[in-house]
Design a protein that fits this description.
The chain is mostly helical. The protein has seven helices and no strands.
Length: 148
Amino acid sequence: MKKVGWVFEHSPWVGSLVWESLPLNSREELLQTMVTVVKNAEEALQLALLRAHPDLGTRLKISEVSEKEQAGAGLDRLSKDEHKEFLSLNQKYVEQFGFPFIMAVKGQTKETILAAMQQRVGNTYEQEFQTALNEVYKIAGFRLNDVI
């Protein structure tokens, strides 16, 4: 589980619970089991998982894998104005929902990410909580694809 337990950002509890389901026969089965563990977790654990994710476009130190994912979308090359806009939207989002904006950025650009932030900040808490979890599942799937 050490090889894949990290795919859910700073949330090793997911991998630990999946360990109890071994053996699994495929990467898809592993991902689905991990997703099921998160879906069946208490809301407080789900919220902790969401809060473990870094802000998009941050210049703070983040995990190596998050840094690579964000760089792939151009978030490491934001202009001063773009960075300011990301910071402002991140702050507004966190104030509104209590967790950071989460989006699977693989295949995205800074423009599509910014547009999604602007749109999703208008969601209800319930909509955004579910959307954020779904994005976490996508991120985990991309990360598993990279290692398996």
